[in-house]
UniProtKB/TrEMBL annotation:
It comes from Mangrovivirga halotolerans. Binds to DNA and alters its conformation. May be involved in regulation of gene expression, nucleoid organization and DNA protection. InterPro entries: YbaB-like_sf, YbaB/EbfC. Belongs to the YbaB/EbfC family. The keyword DNA-binding applies. The keyword Repeat does not apply. Homodimer. Signal peptide: none annotated. It is found in: Cytoplasm, Nucleoid. This is Nucleoid-associated protein OO013_00915. HAMAP family: DNA_YbaB_EbfC.
């Protein structure tokens, strides 16, 4: 027999764990590099840029456009890695918490 009270309790517990896991994402940092490591971006899994490192060899006023392009590329790579890391983290924190219910899309809760 279906126990609605038990199911609601599990859903509330899952919501609490998901909120805790989302908060932990601020502490998970990933790195993206561009130009063979000449530009490095560190972001957290809440998609916040933590730091940008630019190799001294790039600091030339004539290379401004290249530096900008490499910075964007490094940040984008770090953001992609952050998304993957965030999904893996959320999955590990919520695995087995809620039964597989057809039509219930838990991935949308992780974004």
């Amino acid at each position: 027999m279906f126990d609605l009270g038990n199911m609601m309790g599990k859903i509330k517990e899952a919501q609490k764990k998901m909120e805790e896991a989302k908060a932990e994402l601020a502490n998970i940092q990933v790195k993206g590099e561009a130009g063979a490591g000449m530009v490095t971006a560190i972001v957290n899994c809440q998609k916040q840029v933590i730091s940008i490192e630019i190799n001294e060899s790039l600091i030339n006023p004539d290379d401004r456009e290249m530096i900008q392009d490499l910075t964007v590329a490094a940040i984008n790579k770090a953001m992609e890695q952050a998304e993957e890391e965030a999904r893996a983290h959320m999955k590990s924190k919520t695995e087995g918490m809620i039964p597989n219910i057809p039509g219930l899309d838990l991935d949308s809760l992780m974004k």
